[in-house]
Amino acid sequence: MADFFERYKKIKSTNIKKKKIEKPKVVVAGRSNVGKSTFVRHMTGKNVRMGKRPGVTLKINEYDMGSYILVDMPGFGFMHGVDKKVQEKIKDEIVHYIEGKRDEIATAIQIIDAGSFIEIVERWDKRGEIPIDIEMFDFLNELELNPILVVNKMDKIKKPQWDEHLNKILGTLGYKPPWNQWEFVVPAILKEKEGLDEIKYKIMERVNGFKSQKIV
Ligand SMILES: Nc1nc2c(ncn2[C@@H]2O[C@H](COP(=O)(O)OP(=O)(O)OP(=O)(O)O)[C@@H](O)[C@H]2O)c(=O)[nH]1
Ligand SMILES: [Mg+2]
């Protein structure tokens, strides 16, 4: 994965083609089990497969939302009970999809799990590796996709600790506190539809911005 990210980081904004697209895509990315399919199910009303077992979504699924196409990605990163080769194939597919369709994508939604994010990031740091979630977020920003960061499963964090926790998460991504100065962040409890309206609003802002871009 790191190789891919490094390669695409070299893409200059001037190289990003602009195309007139009727229905741009909005991609939903994130580590396995963070709640991507839960989100897509709420958005579409469709019976998207979800599960307690990570790796439930193994292929890329597209849903027509009228003014845009919502794309449910498989989870990236380590998954219990999923073959290493399959994991590699999944990451390659995600990166190739986003890179190949860059000029059709209005924005990306990266979902993280509020409960395990810090712990996972620290574990990678200790091994001297750049955490995959951070690489993904940087990658989406490098491609100028103006990603929305959904911090899901906030029900796992006690309410009085929300601000401190969100500041810490944003800190690991290189953003200074307070977290709420950053427009792209949405704390959420997607299983209870909390945060859903705010995400929808931000999607539409980005979709409308994409459609009104000047084509040169
Ligand atoms: N505590 C809590 N659990 C949630 C929340 N949202 C989703 N979940 C649960 O998290 C688990 C995984 O949800 P999915 O939507 O299948 O996750 P996914 O990201 O699509 O997973 P993959 O398809 O494996 O990549 C399910 O058991 C959900 O019910 C939430 O806000 N809080
Ligand atoms: Mg899924």
TrEMBL record:
Annotated keywords: Cell cycle, Cell division, GTP-binding, Magnesium, Metal-binding, Nucleotide-binding, Septation
Cofactors (names): Mg(2+)
PROSITE patterns: G_ENGB (PS51706)
All copies of domain EngB-type G, residue ranges: 22-209
Annotated CDD domains: YihA_EngB
InterPro entries reported in the protein's UniProt record: G_ENGB_dom, GTP-bd, GTP-bd_ribosome_bio_YsxC, P-loop_NTPase
GO biological process: cell division
Entry GO MF terms: GTP binding; metal ion binding
HAMAP family the record matches: GTPase_EngB
Matches recorded under NCBIfam families: PRK04213.1
Cited function: Necessary for normal cell division and for the maintenance of normal septation.
UniProt family annotation: Belongs to the TRAFAC class TrmE-Era-EngA-EngB-Septin-like GTPase superfamily. EngB GTPase family.
Name used for this protein in its record: Probable GTP-binding protein EngB
Source taxonomy: Archaea, Methanobacteriati, Methanobacteriota, Methanomada group, Methanococci
